[in-house]
Amino acid sequence: MVGTANGSSKRPITPVTPRQAFSVVNNGAQDPGLWSGPDSISGSGLSGVKFTRDEVEALLNMKIKAKDKFNLKEKCDLMMEYIKKLRLCVKWFQDFEGGLSLEHEKLKMLFEAAEKKSNEMEMLMNAKEEELNVIIEELRANYAVLQEKFAKEESEKLAAVETLTMEKNARLTAEMSQASLTEDLEKAQSECSSANLKIISLNDMYKRLQEYNTGLQQYNSKLQTELNQTSETLSKVEHEKAALMESLSKLKGHHETQQAQLASTKASLEESIQLKEALASEVGCLRGDLHKVREDRDRQLILVQDLTAEVVQYKECTGKSAVQLGTLTSRSQELEAKCASQLDTIKSLKERLATAQMKLELSDQSSIETRAGYEEEKKLNSELIIRLAEAESKVIEGEALRKKLHNTILELKGNIRVFCRVRPLLSDEGLDETKTISFPTTTETLGRGIEVVQHGQTHPFMFDKVFTPQTTQEEVFEEISQLVQSALDGYKVCIFAYGQTGSGKTHTMMGTPGSYNDKGLIPRSLEQIFEAREKLKEQGWKYEMQVSMLEIYNETIRDLLSSNKSNSTESSGNKQQYAIKHDANGSTHVSDLTIVDVRSSKEVSYLLNRAAQSRSVGKTQMNEQSSRSHFVFTLRIFGVNETLEQQVQGVLNLIDLAGSERLSKSGSTGDRLKETQAINRSLSSLSDVIFALAKKEEHIPYRNSKLTYLLQVYN
Ligand SMILES: Nc1ncnc2c1ncn2[C@@H]1O[C@H](COP(=O)(O)OP(=O)(O)OP(=O)(O)O)[C@@H](O)[C@H]1O
Description:
With 715 residues, the chain is α+β, with helices and mostly antiparallel strands. It has helices at residues 53-61, 72-316, 322-413, 433-436, 473-488, 505-509, 521-537, 569-572, 601-621, 663-666, 670-694, 706-710, and strands at 419-421, 437-438, 449-454, 457-462, 465-467, 492-497, 541-553, 556-559, 580-582, 588-590, 596-598, 630-641, 646-656.
C-alpha cells in the first residue's frame, strides 16, 4: 500500500492502465492535456503503461513508511515495490526519451525543410521587395506629378473662387433684374392664363378639325379620282393644243410664203404696169415721130410734085439755062433721096411700132395672167387668214381650257397645301438623322409621312408632300411651279416658308447666291414667269409686272427698296407711313411703299440684292439676325389681251417667315423676349387665319397681326 507524502490520503499505487497522456513533459508544444510519449514499455511486461506528471511527481515524492518502523522486511518489500515502480518509470522515461529523440530528428528534418522553404521565401521576398521598390519609385514619381496637379488645381480653385465671387455679384444684379422680371412674369402669367383658355378652345377646335380632316380625306380621295380624270382630259387637251399649235405654225409658214409670193407678184405686176406704161409712152412717141415723118414726107412729096411741075413748066417754057435745070435736077434728086431715106425711117419706125405693139400685147397678156394669179393668191390668202384666225381662236380656246383645268386641278389638290422639307445635317451637327427622323413607306404615307423620334417616343406627321434631305431645289420648285403659273393666270398666290431658326427657310426661298443649282424658289419663280410671259405674247397677251419687298419686325413695316435707310413706321414717327389699305377691288396697298416696274428676271435679281443689303443694314439697327423678321416679296402681274378683250390681275407673294422659337427654350430676356413674343404672336395669328380659311368660317381674324392684315386679299 502506498500513502501520500503528507499521509492525509491513502491510495494504492497500481500499474497504470492506458489512459490520458502526460501533459507537461512536452512543455506545451502539444496539447497540454495529452501525453504523446511511447505507447508501451518494452520488456517490462507492462507494455502500454503510461505515467501522468502527477503520478511521476507523486512517485518521486513518495516516502516509504512502514506500519512498523522496525519491520524491515515490510520496509524492504515496500522499497522493492517502489524501486520496481521507479524502474518502470525510468524505463518509460527512457522509451519516452528515445521517442523524443526520434521526434527530435523528425523535427530537425522538418526544421531544415522549413529553413529551406524560408530561404526560398526570403529570396522570393527579396525579389518582391525589389519589385515593390520599383513600384514605390513609380508611386513617388506619380506622387510628384499629383502634387504638381494639386498645386495647379489649387490655383484653379482660387480662380474659381474669384469667379464665384464675381458670379455672386452678378447673381445679385440678376436678382434685382429678377424682381423687375417677376412683375413682367405676373403680366405674362395673366397672358398665359388667357392663352390657356385659348389652348382649350384650340384643342376643341383641333378635335373638330380632326373630324373635319377625316371628312376631307374622304372627299380628297373622291377628288383624287376626279383629278386623275381631269388630268387625263388636260393631257388630251394639251396634245390637241400641241397639234393645233403645230398646224398653226405650218399655216403661218405657208401664209408667210404666200405673202412673200404675193408681194413678189405685186412687185412684178407693178413692174409690168410700169413697162407697159413705158412701152405705151414709147409707142406714143413713135406714133408722134411717125406722124411727123409722114407729115414731113407729105410736105416733101408736095414739094417734089411742086418741083416736078415747076421742072415741067421750065421744060415746057422756053427752056431756061442748063445750070438752073441742073440745080433743080440735083435738088429734085436730093429730095428724092431724102424722101427715100424718110421712107426707110418710116419703114423702120413701122417695124419698131409693130414690135412695140407686140411687146405691149405680150405685156398686156402677162399682166392679165399676173392679175389672175394675184387674184388667186389673194383668194388663197384670205382663205389662209380665215384658217389662221380659226386656228388662233382654237388655240385661245385651248389656252382658256388649259387655264380652267390647271386651276381646277390646283383647287382639287387643295387651296391650302402644306409641304415639309427636311434639311440635311450640317457638318458641325453631330446627330444621326436616321435615328431621329424616318420616312414611312406604307402606301398611305409614302412621300407624305414623316416620323420624329423624341425622348424614345415616335411622333408621326402627315403633309401634302414631304421632301427628304436629298431633294434638290429644282425638285421642290417643280412642286410649286404650278402655283406660279396660276399667278400669271390671274390668281392670288401666297407661299410661306415656316420653321425654326436654322431649319432652311432662307435656303429654300432664296437659295445660295451665285449658285445655278442652288437657286431658291424666288429666283426660279421669276424666271418661269418671265419665260411664260414671252410665250403668251404670241397669243396677244401683254403683261406688266411690279415688285415690292418689305419686312415686318416687331409689328413694324420696313420698306426694303426705299432709298431712305431708316424707314419704318416707328422711326419716321409718321403713323400714316406704311399703312396697310384695302380697296374696293380687294387689292391691298401699303402707303409710301416703293413699287418698281420690272421687265426681266435680271432686274428683279438686282432688286433682291438691294433688299438683302437693306436687310443687313436693318440687322444692325434693329435686330441681330434677319430671321427675327418676316420677309415679304410681292410680284403684282397685270395682263391684257386686246384681241380677246380680257384682262387678268395676279399676285405672287413669297414669304420667308421669322424663325419660330419656344420662349422656354430661347431663354430670351429684355428686347429679345419682346421680339420673340411678337414673332410668336404673329405666327399664331397666321395659323388662326389659315385654320379659319380651311374651315371656311365666316369671320377670318385678319386684323390680329400686320402680316395677316397685309395678306388679307387671299380669301
Ligand atoms: N436643303 C438644304 N441643303 C443644304 N443645306 C441647307 C439646306 N437647308 C438649309 N441648309 C443650310 O442650313 C443653314 C441654315 O439654313 P437657313 O439660313 O436657310 O435657315 P433659316 O431657317 O432661314 O434660318 P433663320 O431662321 O435663322 O433665318 C444654312 O447654312 C444653309 O445653307
